[in-house]
Amino acid sequence: MGWLLVLLAAAGEVTGAAGLKLYSQRKSLRNGILYMGGFGTSFAFLYASFHYLQLSIAYIIWVGIGTAGAVFINMYLFGESKNIWRMISVGLIIIGVIGLRISS
Fold first, then answer.
1. pLDDT tens digits, residue range 49-90?
2. What is d(CA 86, CA 88) in angstroms, rounded to the nearest whole number?
3. d(CA 3, CA 57)
């Protein structure tokens, strides 16, 4: 259950980051809801995951997945650079998250 909550928290983090980008470009109710709702649900699910997982594991996996997801969203939806070094760096983040998952 804890892992599902962390994944939902990470999805909320990515949604919040995309909403923040959209809100910075155009302040609308929809973009504000994506921004605030995404981050709000992210924190709620992360908090709930602490009942099942150690703080250090849940937090670092949330950060890793959220960071990688935000980079991918920004590359594919907002046209940020897709150079090889960015892809390698995100791959290393994902490898680190998988390593933490396996070791816990």
1. 999 999 988 998 899 999 999 999 989 888 888 889 999 999
2. 5
3. 10
Contact assessment for residue 24 and residue 35, using Cβ atoms and an 8 Å cutoff: no
Cα–Cα distance measured from residue 70 to residue 104, given in angstroms and rounded to the nearest whole number: 25
Which of 97, 71, 99, 74 minimizes the C-alpha distance to 86? Answer: 71
Q: What is the DSSP string of 5-54?
A: HHHHHHHHHHHHHHHHHHHHH---HHHHHHHHHHHHHHHHHHHHHTTTS-
Residue 16 structure tokens: 């919040």
Cα angle 97, 89, 48; round to 5: 30
Q: 6 near 62, Cβ under 8 Å?
A: yes
